[in-house]
Amino acid sequence: MAQSQNPIIMIPARMSSTRLPQKPLADIAGEPLIVHVWRRGMEADCGPVVVACAENEVANVIRSVGGEAVLTDPLHPSGSDRIHEAVERFDPDGKYDLVINLQGDLPTIDRVALEAVLKPLEGSDFDIGTLVAKISSPDERINPNVVKAVVSLPPDENIGPAIYFSRESVPWSEDDKAQLYHHIGLYAYRREGLRKFVSLAPNVLEKQERLEQLRALVNGMRIGAVCVDSVPLGVDTPADLELARRILSRNKGCI
User: Fold this and answer.
1) pTM over 0.90
2) Which 8-state DSSP code applies to residue 236?
């Protein structure tokens, strides 16, 4: 399969977060959260960076710093649906054949991760690329908010197929020190893979685990995972927001 050369980064954003209302506009080191995420995307230099937003307020702050924003249907059930609408409107001719779904709450993600998520799609038949990191903390092993990825990594390689995702500590082993992997919710889709994914209906496993990526696996789509060194900070709670403020204030808004 020919290597793709034209990725685009899409950042889904909406104001109606239940745990952190109006999250995209939360101030961090003098700028809204969504602007920091947009800057991280721009720093990666992987391709154009577009915010797929549900509200004018978010579009306006991105445009005020010179960024691209596409307004989308506020009723989309997921970020994948949101970026699909946005990329089809932004690029109707299909110039960009890879789509990176950069979650709008990752203000400290670095360019290495954004470059790495494309690696599983190079010269392979994977439909989707994603990231994992080794779990070293005992608390992470049993925390249901830490999604575990069951990944078949060949010896001495850091890319392999994802077999399953769960909030439980999988795969099971008699040795409680057996390596587990923390799934990082960053994805790269082939353009046709994204179209297929959003056309699929949710399934029982997806609903039970509350993990959207299981929809792809159940329907025969292949996800390739690359193992990276660290997990970026996701801002989901007020405590996460305070931590992001400390990190980015210390670094003057840069990573």
Assistant:
1) yes
2) -
